[in-house]
Every structure is written in structure tokens, then in C-alpha cells.
Amino acid sequence: MKRVLVVDDDPLSLKVLSRHLTQHGYRVCTGASGVEGLRLFAQEQPDVVVSDVVMPEMDGFEFCRQLRQQRGGELVPFIFLSSRGEVDDRVQGYEWGADDYIIKPFEPLELVAKIEAQIERSRRTQSEILRLIQQQPQAKPEVVAPRPTPAELPLTAAEERVFREVIRGSTNKQIGEKLFISPRTVQTHLTNILSKLSLENRSQLVRFAYERGYSAEEEPAE
Q: Within 10 A of 73 (CB to CB), how many other CB atoms are there?
């Protein structure tokens, strides 16, 4: 049974969401704040996280940021479900690491469809990574396989640095702090990277990098 962690400080919303998702065959775990959400995630990792934004103790943005720093939380599908529907709010949600952002009020069937889409995308990504690991040939000690160089990436120097940080698992905020740029600028670079590489999201970018042998480490200068 697929597991969904729902985090919202509104008891009625939690009750309605839990009942609806349970009726669709999910096992639902609920928390009333980001702090509780982190604790529940550590106890049993869900297949997808659905979270409100405005909550006491720790809001949804900070919850998402800290979740992305936890082992196992880097690639778990994360969906914001919030009444805050302004463009800036949605952009901020993506900058903090969310995979989707749904605005309240919403159609319950749409939420289920988006949850299924995120779970399936995560499953495909993990299956592909596992397949690649299993098919990795045992190289002889004296043989060093050629490795792609930065020159082979159609990226600018700034985009390349963001690329390395993304495949390392860093959030937009962490990348911005390390490279001394704003999270919005990081997101702009990431959007350009995905467009140039014909990819849709971070998960596909990680798979792309692994499949082609790119490392999170910076290439040595010539």
C-alpha cells in the first residue's frame, strides 16, 4: 500500500484529506506542523509528502528545506497544497524543493492524479538508477573508463556550477548560499539547464548525470 504523509495544521483539512486518500487505497499518516512532519518522516519514509504552507512552529517552506537535507528526503516527491496561490508563493515553493504546488480549493481527483504521477515518476527514476548500478561493468584496475568533461555540456560556467550542486542534492537556497546568488537566480539557471538538456525536473537531471558519468565534483582547470 502506497504511503502518503500529509502535513497541515487545520484538523478539518487533515480529516478530509486523510479520508479521501484512504478511500483511494493510500495509507495516510498525518502531522500538524513541519516539526511533526520531520519526525514522522524519520520514523517511516512515505512514498509522497503533501504539505500546507502556513503552519505554526515550522512552515511548509522550511519543512521542505529541512526534509531535502535528510537522508532519504532528497528525492521523495513533495507537493504543496495551499491557499496561498500568488505567483511568488508558487515560485518560492519550487525554489525550496517542491515537485508540485496545488492551490486550494482543489479537485480531490486532481490531487490523487498528481500524487500518482509523482510516485510513478519517482519509481521510474529509482528503477533506472538501480538498473544502471546493476549493469555497471566491473572495470579492471588498470582500465580507466573515459569520463565526460565539462566541455561536453552545453552550459555556461554559472549553469555548470549549478548543475554540479543540483546533482549533489543541494536545494536552491543551499546553492544560492554557496555560490552567492539568490534562489531565484538559481531557479533561472536550473530552468535553462533543464531546457538545454531536454529534461523536465531535478530527478531526471540526477539520472542524466549518473547515466553519463558526470560527477558532483568540479572539473579540474586546464
A: 19
